[in-house]
Amino acid sequence: MTSRTGFFVLSGVLLLVALVCVGEGVQLIATGKPLGIGLGLCAFVVPPIGVWFLRQTVRFGRASERLARELEAEGGLPVDELKRTAGGRIDRDSADAVFARRKAEAEASPGDWRVFFRLAVAYADAGDTPRARKTMQHAIRLHSTNEPARSTA
Q1: % of residues, the chain, pLDDT over 90
Q2: Could you tell me if 28 and 45 are in contact, meaning their C-beta atoms sit under 8 angstroms apart?
Q3: What is the pLDDT of residues 9-39, one digit of tens each?
Q4: In the Cβ-directed half-sphere of 151, how many Cα atoms lie within 13 Å?
Q5: Rounded distance between C-alpha atoms, residue 10 and residue 82, angstroms
Q6: For residue 54, what are the contacts with CB-CB under 8 A and spacing of at least 6?
Q7: Would you say 46 and 18 are in contact if contact means Cβ atoms under 8 Å apart?
Q8: N or C end of the chain, less CB within 10 A?
Q9: DSSP character string of 42-88
């Protein structure tokens, strides 16, 4: 299953759970008992949190794809130069070497979203998903703050 398919399946499940939560909340409030009313009101809090999380994830994905398309148009997408095992897994030493180079590029150009995009890919290749996501968010912020300057020039 691709990550996009998995995302849509999980999004559907999240929306289904949100509907069930609201339905159960209505039934709990309808009991008229204080505990039921309290739990019912709490059940109404869960769906907005889930929908907010889903919205943030979609925004992150779209922004990442936009940056990837722009970088591809410039010819700056990172080339897959990683060595792989016979089973197709990324060789750890190869990923570490690429990561060290990408990190040095980011330290040399702290205001360039492109180097942070490539650093995020290196983090992902090294298996550090939380840092990859955080670094990609930084690249998105850098891109959005530099965008008005490029469009007016």
Answers
A1: 59
A2: no
A3: 988 998 899 999 999 999 999 999 999 999 9
A4: 6
A5: 31
A6: 11, 14, 15
A7: yes
A8: C
A9: HHTTHHHHHHHHHHHHHHHHHHHHHHHHHHHHHT-SPP----B-TTS
| Three-state SS at 90 | strand
pLDDT at 153: 41
The tokens for 146 are: 């530099």
Using CB atoms within 10 Å of the CB of residue 120, give its burial: 0 to 12 exposed, 13 to 18 middle, 19+ buried.
buried
Closest by Cα among 89, 87, 88, 122 to 103: 122
For residue 112, give the nearest of 152, 73, 67, 50 by alpha carbon.
Answer: 67
Q: Is 97 exposed, middle or buried (0-12, 13-18, 19+ CB in 10 A)?
A: middle
Amino acid identity, position 138: H
pLDDT of 152 above 60 = no
pLDDT digit string (tens) for 64-98? 999 999 999 998 888 888 888 888 888 888 888 88
Confidence at residue 96, expressed as pLDDT on a 0 to 100 scale: 84
